[in-house]
Amino acid sequence: MKNRIRRLGSNGGRSRASDGARPRTLRMVSAGLILREAEGRREVLICQRKADQPMALKWEFPGGKIEPGESAEQALRRELNEELGITAEIGEPVAQVRHNYRNGGAVDLQFFAVRRFEGEIDNRIFQEVRWSEFESLPGYDFLAADIGLVRDLAEGRIALEGGR
Ligand SMILES: Nc1nc2c([nH]c(=O)n2[C@@H]2O[C@H](COP(=O)(O)OP(=O)(O)OP(=O)(O)O)[C@@H](O)[C@H]2O)c(=O)[nH]1
């Protein structure tokens, strides 16, 4: 089944009144929902940020900033290689989220399904990486921008077929 690209809840990139006129730089980011199916259970790979990073120890989906001249898919392939040592085949776009963080940073996140990759997952930058069933995702302390997506995945509002 094909999903439409969803523009998800979050705070929709709106500023709060208290933010005043401070200009925000919008970071364009792509992230991967790396999927696997194990004994009939669908799982997705989640990653925990390190203690010394901003938004320390929060969970997120692997990925990162789109560099000038890159497509979102190219950026994600590069990031997944740098962060996890895999060569990934980027699947369909699943969701797009705009979020303004309280510290003044704004992100535009594009999430893609990833069902196939070459190489073994090698944790190169995270505190921890872990496979999680969709239903268990809300139990992790995710970055604020991801919470709407996490809930939609857990509650089956976004149907994704599993991976290898
Ligand atoms: N990879 C990833 N980034 C996310 C997610 N949700 C979310 O808000 N982000 C934000 O998107 C940005 C990702 O860029 P990045 O990975 O290159 O950035 P970073 O935290 O290393 O920051 P820096 O490079 O500015 O120091 C971060 O600000 C991160 O907080 C997510 O699920 N995955």
UniProtKB/TrEMBL annotation:
<comment type="similarity">
    <text>Belongs to the Nudix hydrolase family.</text>
</comment>
<dbReference type="InterPro" id="IPR020084">
    <property type="entry name" value="NUDIX_hydrolase_CS"/>
</dbReference>
<dbReference type="InterPro" id="IPR047127">
    <property type="entry name" value="MutT-like"/>
</dbReference>
<keyword id="KW-0234">DNA repair</keyword>
<dbReference type="Pfam" id="PF00293">
    <property type="entry name" value="NUDIX"/>
</dbReference>
<keyword id="KW-0515">Mutator protein</keyword>
<feature type="domain" description="Nudix hydrolase">
    <location>
        <begin position="25"/>
        <end position="155"/>
    </location>
</feature>
<keyword id="KW-0479">Metal-binding</keyword>
<keyword id="KW-0227">DNA damage</keyword>
<dbReference type="InterPro" id="IPR000086">
    <property type="entry name" value="NUDIX_hydrolase_dom"/>
</dbReference>
<keyword id="KW-0235">DNA replication</keyword>
<dbReference type="GO" id="GO:0016787">
    <property type="term" value="F:hydrolase activity"/>
</dbReference>
<dbReference type="InterPro" id="IPR015797">
    <property type="entry name" value="NUDIX_hydrolase-like_dom_sf"/>
</dbReference>
<dbReference type="InterPro" id="IPR020476">
    <property type="entry name" value="Nudix_hydrolase"/>
</dbReference>
<feature type="region of interest" description="Disordered">
    <location>
        <begin position="1"/>
        <end position="22"/>
    </location>
</feature>
<keyword id="KW-0460">Magnesium</keyword>
<keyword id="KW-0378">Hydrolase</keyword>
<protein>
    <recommendedName>
        <fullName>8-oxo-dGTP diphosphatase</fullName>
        <ecNumber>3.6.1.55</ecNumber>
    </recommendedName>
</protein>
